[in-house]
Amino acid sequence: MSDITSETSGKSLLGLSLNDWAKAYRNGGNASELLNALRAEVHQQESCNGVLKKGSVWIELASEQQLGAQLIQLQQLLDAADGDMQALPLYGVPFAVKDNIDVAGFATTAACPEFAYEPQADATVVRLLRNAGAIVLGKTNLDQFATGLVGTRSPYGAVANPFNEEYISGGSSSGSAVAVARGYVPFSLGTDTAGSGRIPAGFNHIVGLKASKGVLSTQGVVPACRSLDCVSVFALNTLDAERIFALAAQFDAQDAYSRPVGNPPLKTIRRLAVPAGMPWFGDDVQQAAFTAALANAESLGFELITIDFSPLSELAALLYQGPWVAERYAAVGEFIRQDLPGINPVVKSIIAGGNSGTAVQAFNAEYRRMELLREIQQLFQDFDALFVPTAPCFPTLAEVEAEPVKVNSQLGTYTNFVNLADLCAIALPADLRSDGLPFGITVIAPAFSENALLTFAGHWQAALRLPQAPVLLGARDDESVVVAVVGAHLTGMPLNHQLTSRNAVLLEQTLSAEKYQLYALANTVPPKPGLVRINDALLNSGSETGHKIIVELWRMDVAAFGSFVEEIPQPLGIGTLELADGRLVKGFICEPEAVASATHISEFGGWRAYIAYLKSQAGK
């Protein structure tokens, strides 16, 4: 989708990133025309004889009337902003919402028809995104009452895996993940109590961000385990996940479990811990894929250590063997007891089991959780983050049908403990398995480490050259220039408009060669960094250390590039920048003399992480 205009006839609208949607509107695209065309295209793929297919991504795809009502609200937001689309960072961007999260104007079913109700208001997280201009394309399928990691426990059918329909798509947020994987929307919302926002990401080759508990409000979410529930974000690329997180991470006084973003314990991730004696449950292909991922991590300069995983494993077992199942009963147990036709029998048996415990057992389990938590906190003194496969195996639909509880339990090996231990995590695509199926890794860190995780994720995706945008670098022609930006011109930063106003196209996020140092320049408005290349002789002698720095590559035509360069003030300029893969592009460089009064910030790995760090310090 390298040339997106308001002329949509005959062109697919699938696979667009946030940047693509913004470009479509900058080029004069009409929100009503684009979104109705997208809805028609999605409906054609997901329906049979005009009705959503069994196992569809959607429980409810927005009707023309529901879409029209949102477009009216969008115009009202634009009018309130005096017609300035820049004031609505998600103007006209479609997204999908898991159907246990309230959206006004849509029913909430939690994948149980008899449970359905009409919410009067949006869940807080939905409201924040709609206020930024986003449009709900529909409500997505899920494991009923968010109980499951398999994506098969729904009366609306199991959502098909887009890579191979014989395999599961993962749950419970199956529909939200596949909606992104199929390119219907650039991002979606899921929930994650035991891994539901990570397992489907791993099985569908997308990004799944599970923030710290309480950072994304769960007000308006049908509870699974209310004390552990998290809203999660799915996206095609790390940059889009980061942008959605920044908009949605707002303290909510209406949510008793909401908490403001705390001081980040990590600025950067360098040392990764890998569990010893990892179980693979007979999936040798999955094991081989993780071995390759470990090699990739080492090649990127991360230090790997092996740890005793037993405290984390024991904590994971507590989730379904302890009193937290009683929380599921507290949420929907009385409804489950009605034994209505739409209730999934596996879900019923799990939730009904939550009514058999005692208060003594609950307190004993909580005491053991705190003891294990202290052990885990000690473990984290020796490393920055855990590096694990998102799932230890990739089961087929037939395997899940044969042993639904056993397989589900296996899938939670590296996910169940995360919320119990108050950790945050991001699931990322890695290289495909040898059989062509997706393989994903998950990086897990202490609470409020989202920015460090997102920085790691940016490095990971850039270095592995995993898909981040539909536009390919090789599609450029002789009439355009590719320029690397490193600071205030990055997406979402104060000077990004100097690129977007010239119809520049974001190609990818990638890394510089390990030959540069990054500095925060003094007395610049807006704040700007300086990227300085280190002399090869100094690098070879070891007297200076080079770093790989995150950059964005943008393409613009030659005429626009000329006017763009004229706006660059000293001591910055445009020169030739070497990328980690050996490519040479035009890029921002800084005169070495300017760094005498600057702050060396290479350890952050990029400007975005440094700005996030400054904001966190200002909040202390």
TrEMBL record:
Domain Allophanate hydrolase C-terminal, residue spans: 482-612
Keyword Hydrolase found: yes
Protein name (Swiss-Prot/TrEMBL): Allophanate hydrolase
Domain of life of the organism encoding this protein: Bacteria
UniProt keyword Hydrolase present: yes
Domain Amidase: 77-454
Molecular function terms, GO-annotated: allophanate hydrolase activity
NCBIfam families: allophanate_hyd, PRK08186.1
UniProt cross-references to SUPFAM superfamilies, sorted A to Z: Amidase signature (AS) enzymes
Broad class of enzyme this protein falls into: hydrolase
Source taxonomy: Bacteria, Pseudomonadati, Pseudomonadota, Gammaproteobacteria, Oceanospirillales
Pfam families for this protein: AH_C, Amidase
EC number: 3.5.1.54
Keywords, ordered alphabetically: Hydrolase
